[in-house]
C-alpha cells in the first residue's frame, strides 16, 4: 500500500480545502456589491449567485467522494489540514498566495473569460506535506 496520494485523492484534498475559500470570496463580493454605487447591480448579483450555486454543487460532490473514499479531514487552520487516507496521515497546508491563485483561476474560469490563466498544480512545491504516518 502506497503512502502517497493518487491523482484523484490529490484533487479531492485540494478541492475540499480550497472550494470553501472560493465560496467565501463570492459571498464577500456579493456583500460588497450590495454596498457599492454601481448603477446596475442586478446582473452582477445574478452572476455571482449563479457562481456561488455552482461552487456549492461542486463542494457537495467533492464531499460525497471524500465520504466514499473514507478520507478524514481535521482542520488545523484555514489552509492547513491533517488528512487521513487509506490509514496514512498527511499534513497538508497551502500557502495563502497559492490558495489565492487557485481561487482566482477557478473564479476566472466561472466567468468564462478567454485567455484566463490556468492553475497548474505542482505536487510538493504547492503545498507542504509532512511524511505520512500509519494509523
Element order, helices and strands? HHEEEHHE
The total strand number stands at: 4
Average per-residue pLDDT, rounded, comes to: 85
Radius of gyration: 17 Å
**What topology, given as strand order, has the largest sheet?**
1-2-3-4
Q: How large is the share of residues in beta strands?
A: 15-25%
Distance between the termini: 13 Å
Pfam family, one: YhjD
Polypeptide structure, described:
56% of the residues lie in helices and 20% in strands. The chain is an alpha+beta fold and 135 residues long. It has one domain (7-134). It has a four-stranded antiparallel sheet. A hairpin with a 2-residue loop joins strand 1 and strand 2. Helix 1 (7-35) packs antiparallel against helix 2 (42-68) and helix 1 packs across helix 3. Mean pLDDT is 85; it is low at 128-132.
